[in-house]
Amino acid sequence: MKATLIFFAALTGLGLSAPLTDADIDAALETRDLRSCIQKCSTGAVAGSFACALGYSLQGLQEQGPKHAQFMHVAGEYVRENIIESQEGVHMVLDYQVVDVNTCDPVPDVYLEMWHCNSTGVYSGIVASGNGDSSDGSNINNTWLRGIQKTDCDGVAQFQSVFPGHYTSRATHIHIMVHANATLLPNMTLGRENYASHVGQAFFDQDLIAQVEKLEPYASNTQELTKNAADGILSEETATDGVDPFMEYTLLTDDIQDGIFAWLAFGINTTGSDSIVPAAYYYEGGGVSNVSVNNLRLGSEGDAYRLRAADTITVSKHVARLHDTEDQVFQLQESADELLSEEIDIYPRDEIDDRPSNLTASLVGRSLDGDGDDDAVDFDDENVPEANLEGEILMPLPWMRFSLLDGYFKGIKAIVKASELVPEHPRNSRKRPPRQSVPKHEDQKPEIYSPYDSATNNITQCYLDISNSTPVPNIYAYRGIPQQMPSPAIGSYDLLGIRSDVCFDRFGRYGPYGFGYRKAHGGSGVGLDTENSGSDAVWAQTGQIDYGNINWSDAQERCFASNRHRFDSAPLGRTAESINRDNKLKRMRASNDDEQRKEKVNPRSELRHRSAVVVRLYTGFQWTELAILNLRAMISELSLNTGGEYAVHLLLQVHNTDLPIWSDDETLGRLLQAHVPVEFHGLVSVWSESEMTLYYPGAFDAPLANPSERSAHGFYRSGHLPLQVFAMDHPQYSNYWNWEVDIRVVGSYYEFFDRMGRWADEQPRRLLWERNARYYIPSYHGSWDNFSRTAHFDTKQYGRPDVFGPVAFPGQKRLRHEKRQASALPANCIEQPEDCGVGEAADLITLNPIFDTVDSGWIFSDDITGYPGASPSEPPRRCAIVTASRLSGRLLKAMHEEVWRHHHTMFSEMFPPTIALHHGFKAVYAPHPVYLDRAWYPVNEIDAVFNSGAAHSTSGIGSPFDQKNEHNFKGSTWYYNSEFAGLLWRRWLGYAQTQPGRRSSSIRGAMTSSARGGFEEESDEGSSGRMCLRSMIVHPIKHEGPGDV
User: Fold this and answer.
1) Of 1003, 1040, 317, which Cα lies nearest the Cα of 625?
2) What CATH number is given to the structural domain containing 239?
3) With b meaning 16 or more CB within 10 Å and e meaning fewer, what string describes 911-924?
4) DSSP annotation string for 643-679
5) How far is residue 952's CA from residue 960's CA, in Å, rounded to a whole number?
6) 89 lies in some domain
7) Most buried residue, 345, 362, 372, 842, by most Cβ within 10 Å?
8) Which UniProt keywords are present, listed alphabetically (predicted)?
9) What is the largest distance, in Å, between two alpha-carbon atoms of the chain?
10) Alpha carbon 444 to chain centroid distance?
C-alpha cells in the first residue's frame, strides 16, 4: 500500500504528510465481509489504473432499474473542478478513476458528474419534500456541490469539495454519474444530457464519518445519522460481486480539519447507455423543477428510481444554461410539457470559479473580452498537448502546508507605532508570534493623508462644483499599524517610496466620497450597516459632501484649465530625446558660467507631462455604489488634487455592434443612460469590435495558435487595439494607464501611480529584463541590490545572454522611426552604460513580472499573428499577466504601426511587452506590495513557488504562470484568479466572511462554523474594532456587497 500512496501522490501532485488510512470494508459495513468479492485485475492492465494499483477492480456501482430517475440529479451542471462555492465543511480533494470493466484499462475523455448534500444534509438545486430544502424556494437556483470533470489520459477526474453531511434514512454518500458520449457545449455544461453509462454512489469509512461529525457545522445537523450498515442502497451495491463502493482516503495533515484526499476506482461498461431523468434543470435564469418528478410526493429516494423517462418534461436540445443576449427567450408553457429556448449565438461568461486542471477539457480565461468577468473558453484536444503524467509529476499544492494568517483582520484598537509592530509573517519560525493583548487606543483619531509632494504645492486649487464652493476632499489614515499585521510577501513599500507606517479604514478611505452616509444627504447609502465608531472625524473639515449633482468631466476640465500653465503641451514624456536634452542641460548647469546656463536652459524642462488613466468598461457592467465610490476616489486623487496631472477616461466597449453610436447622438445618449451613471457620462469614449476592423483593415494571417478561437479584432485576444486608437485620438498625454474596473486600491491612487512611475523611470536598463522576470521577495532576497546581483548570477548560471536594446529575429520588420535611424536608447547608453536608462521614462510599467513565454506553459504563448516563420520560440516574446499597466505614447504608436502596417498582433497580455522587447523600449515590472493568505515558511518556499521557472525566474519550464501552477495565486492579493483579494476587501468593508484564506467556495479556507468579521464582531467590546490595512492594490474584486457572495 505504501507504493500505492506514492503512485497517487505522484499522479495528483499532493504532498501527503499523514499516513495512508485504508477504508476498512469490514469495519465500514460492520456486518458484512466483502473480501471474497474483491476481484483481481488482469495482469495486462496499464500501470496508470487505480484499481490495478490497489489490486482489485470495481464493477459498475449501478443503481436500480434500466431507466434511472435521479431524485437528486440536476441537469445542466457546470464543468468545473471546484464545486464548493459558499459551503463550509472539511475540505476534500477527490480523485475518481474510471476503468473499463472488460479490459481494466483507464477510460479517458468521458465526463464524470458528481453531486452530494452539504454538511447539514441539503442538496442544492432541489426544492422538494423529504430531501433537499423544501423550506427555501430559492434553493432551486443554487449550484453548490455539483460539478462535472472530463477524465484525463489515466481515466482520472479530480474535484475539490467538502465532506458530505447526512440526512434521515441515508448513510453519508456521494452520487456519481459517467457520460461516455456527451458533448461539451460552449457554456461549459453538457446541456440536457439524457443518457449515462454509469450511475452509482460512493461511501465512506464509518470511523472517518464519526471524526467529521464531531466538527462544526456537521455537529449542528439535527437529522438522524444513518450508519452504513443500515443503508439500503449501500447494501444493494455491495451485494453485487466485485463492487466496493468505499472511497480510499488519507488525511492531508495530522489534523482532519486541514482536509482529506480521497479516491475511488470503479468500472463502467463503455458501450452501455441508459436514460436518466433529472429532478431539475439549471438555466441561465435559475433552476426549473422537473414537474413530473417533483409533483409526486416521494416518500424516499428509492421511489424516484422507478419513474419512467417519459414522465419528464422535455427541454430544447441546445443547452441547459444559455448565456445572456438581448434576443434570448425562455418560455415555460402552462402545461409544463415543453421548455423552449430560441436558438442563439452563445456568448461565454464567468460561470466557472476555478480553472479546470485538465488542459484537454477547457480553459477559464481572464476578463479580456471587455465584460470584466472571467470567461469560459472551449478548445479542441488537438490544440493543447495532452499532459504526459507518466513522465511528469504534477506540482503539489504547497500552500496547504501552511497555516492561515489572522493578522490582517486586526482593527484600529490594535494600532501600534510602526517601530513596535511584530508582523505575523514573514517570520523565522513556524510558530505564531505570541498573542498580543488588544491595545487600548479608544481615542485613536485618523489624520488627513496627503501623498502629494512639493511639485503639487503650487497648483491652483480645484473644486467639485462649478461655483467653486466645494473643495476636493482628502482621505484619512491612522498613524500606525494594527499589531501583527503581516508584511508583504512580494514587493516593497520602501523600494517604491510608499509609506508603510500608516493604515486605512473604510471610512477614512471612502467616507470623503460618500461612504457611510445616506443618499438623502448626498452619500452612497453603503456602509451604514457597519461598525462606525469615531467615523465622524473624516467629515469634520468638509462635512458630508452632496455628490448628487457632480459632473466629473466638467470638474476635470475646469481643474486642468486652471493649471494649464504647469504642463508641457507636447507629449514627449521622458523619452530618449528628452533624456539626451536633459543630460546636456545637466552638463550646462555644471558650468561655472551662470549667465550661459540661464540662456541655454529650456524652460520646458520645468513643465510637467500629463497622463491618461483609461478605465475599461463594457455595456452590461453592474454599477454598484462601491464601484461609483471607487471611481470618484480615482478622479479626485489622480486628477483634481494634482491640478490635472492625470485625466481619467472611461473606455466603454459596446457589445451590440448594430447600434449607430457614432452617427446618432440620441442613440449614444440612450446607451450612456443605460450603462453609465450620469455623473460620469462626460468621461466616456465608446468603441466596438466592428470599429476595430475599420481602424485595422485587411486580411490578417492565421495565428500560430488560437486556443480561445476568438477574432483578432476582439477584446479578448487584442485588448490593446482600442487603447491604441484612444492614444492616437488623444495625443496630448505622455503616458496611458490601462486600468481594469475590478481593481481596488487601499490608500491613495496617486501615491501608487506616482511612486511606481518615479521608481520605474529611475531604473537602469542594464539587466532590466532579467530583473523584470522575477518576483522580488524581500524576506528571501534581502536588499534590492542583492536581488539584482542574484538575478544576474542566476541568468549567467543558466547560460542565457543578457537582453539589452532591441532584440533581432528572422523576418523582423522595421518601424518608421527605425528607418530614420532614430534609436530607442538614450545617448548616454554608449558613454555610460551603467547609467543607461536612469531618468528615462519607462515605456511600459507592469504590475506582474515580465516573463519569457517559451516553454512556460502559459496557454496563450503561441497566440501570435502575422509573423512569417513563427514557431513556439520565434519571434521571441514576453508577457505580463493582468493587462493593468502604464504604456507610453511612443510604445502605443509603435504597437499601432505594427498592427495597421505589418498586420502583427498577439494576445493582449503579450503584445505590449513583446513590442517593447523587439524595438528596445524600456519596460519595467514595478514590485508593488503583494500579500499572501498563509504563513509560508521558510521564506525560500515563496521563491521556490513564485520564481519556479528557469534560473529562479518566472520564465520557461516550471513557470508559476503555467496553468497547473496558477492555483498558488489564489491566496494572493494580486492576480486575475485571486480569491484572497476579494475576501480581504469585503472583510475590510465591514462584511462578515467565512474563515480567511480563500472564499468559502474553496479548499483553502479553514474549517469554521460561522462567518468572521462584520458588525457584531467589530462592535464587540473584546474585539480590536474595524479593520485597518496598509496601502495595497487588490484584484480582482468581483463582489463587494454582503449579498454578492
Assistant:
1) 1040
2) 2.60.130.10
3) bbbbbbbbbbbbbb
4) TSSEEEEEEEE-S-TTS-TTT-HHHHHHHHHHHS-GG
5) 11
6) yes
7) 842
8) Signal
9) 105
10) 36
CB 989 within 8 A of CB 1040: yes
Q: What angle do CA 654, 710, 189 make, to 5 degrees?
A: 95
594 found inside a domain: no
* pLDDT averages per 10-residue partition of the chain, 1045 residues: 36 37 37 27 35 38 38 82 89 93 90 94 81 72 92 94 93 93 80 79 95 95 91 82 84 89 90 78 67 38 28 25 28 28 28 30 34 38 33 56 93 96 84 61 85 79 96 97 97 98 98 97 95 95 95 98 87 44 42 39 64 97 96 98 98 91 88 97 96 93 93 91 97 98 98 98 96 96 92 84 90 91 88 91 98 96 95 96 98 97 96 98 98 93 95 95 95 96 96 61 44 89 94 96 64
What the block records as the C-alpha cell of 433 is 508570534
Q: Comparing C-alpha atoms, which of 275, 206, 201 is closest to residue 237?
A: 201
- Rg of the chain (C-alpha set): 30
- Non-local (6+) Cβ contacts of 735 within 8 A are 573, 609, 611, 612, 757, 841, 886, 887, 888, 889
Please spell the DSSP secondary structure of 573-638, one letter per residue: -S-HHHHHHHHHHHHHHTSS-HHHHHHHS-GGGGSB--EEEEEEEETT----HHHHHHHHHHHHHH
Phi-psi region of 527 (alpha: psi -120 to 50; beta: other; left: phi over 0): left
Report the 10 Å Cβ neighbour count for 168. 13
Question: What is the separation of C-alpha 350 from the centre of its chain, rounded to a whole number of angstroms?
Answer: 11
Nearest partner of 569 among 732, 359, 357, judged by Cα: 732
- 222 in a structural domain: yes
Instruction: Tell me the residue type at 504.
Output: F
Number of domains in the chain: 1
Distance CA(45)–CA(991), nearest Å, equals 54
The structure's pTM equals 0.64
Query: Which three three-digit cell numbers place residue 24?
Result: 476498512
- Dihedral angle, C-alpha 39, 43, 45, 51, nearest 10 °: 30
Is 197 within the bounds of a domain? yes
Pairwise CA distance, residues 647 & 726, whole Å: 13
Which residue in 495, 174, 187, 517 sits closest to 321, CA to CA? 187
Place of cell 480615482: 634
What percent helix, strand, coil does the chain show, rounded to 5? 30, 20, 55
Q: What is the CA 1019 to chain-centroid distance, rounded?
A: 31
Q: Which three cell numbers stand for residue 441?
A: 487606543
Residue 112 in contact with residue 96, Cβ under 8 Å?
yes
Rounded to whole angstroms, the Cα distance separating 741 from 624 reads: 12
Q: Residue 20 class from Cβ within 10 Å (0-12 exposed, 13-18 middle, 19+ buried)?
A: middle
Q: Are the CB atoms for 937 and 779 separated by under 8 Å? A: no
Strand partners, 203: 173, 246
DSSP-derived secondary structure for 78-121: BB-SB--TT--S-EEEEEEEEEETTT--B--S-EEEEE---TTS
Query: H or E element: which one contains 235?
Result: helix 232-238
Of 161, 20, 46, the residue nearest 99 (C-alpha):
46
Number of C-alpha atoms within 13 angstroms, CB side, residue 721? 32
Q: Which three cell numbers stand for residue 1029?
A: 490595512
Q: Which domain holds residue 258?
A: 74-292
**Which residues are within 8 A (CB) of 826 and not within 5 positions of it... i.e. 6 or more apart?**
576, 579, 580, 583, 836, 837, 840
Return the residue matching grid coordinates 462584511: 991
d(CA 850, CA 72): 48
Q: CA 975, CA 154: separation in Å to the nearest integer?
A: 31
Alpha-carbon gap, residue 688 to 668, rounded angstroms: 13
